[in-house]
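I had to read the description of the data format several times before I understood it. The format is easy to grasp once an entry is in front of the reader. For illustration, here is how one protein appears when written out as sequence plus structure tokens:
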Amino acid sequence: MHDPFWNHNTHYFPVLTRLVGPGTRSALDVGCGEGLLTRRLRAAGAQRVVGIDLDPEQVERARAAADGEMTGLGYVTGDVLEPLPALSEPFDLVTCVATLHHLPLDAGLRRLRSLVAPGGALAVVGLTQPRTAWDWVVSGAAVPASAIARRRRGEWEHGSPIAEVTTSPAELRAAVREILPGATVRRRLYWRYTLVWRAPGARSD
């Protein structure tokens, strides 16, 4: 079955949209690109969704796609590591898809953590660089699965800039243990992992 928006990243969007609940008043998508995930988070029930991306062309595409489609969406061109007015208050849900490897790992995780409101969630879909024999076994298993999926579904070209992946699975897990204690990290198909972390504290409804 052909899906016009399927690729290795969007395959995991349901993991992220399932985190939207009745108390999700605000959500932030870091590295939003042309805004596909922001629109899906809004459709899932997030009351206000902000997307941020360094690429002004992608942000303009996101704004154009959202124009007249639904309310409650906003977009910012900028560096998530910088103090920006749009990021001055924390969010109930922060998502980050194929973007963490564009940032310094520790600084990126700490900044994402700081953007999550008490009781809120951080959800990352990311990539790592295989280092060990087992890493390469897991990586190799994705090759036939990816080929079959592409034939059945096609592959959406998102148009966002790409960056080299240098962090190994072990390095990622070590950083997560230190910075996001209690987070769940899972290896996934298509050379991806998911990371889900709940911020301590109660959400103020």
About this structure: Residues 29 and 95 are 5 Å apart (CA to CA).
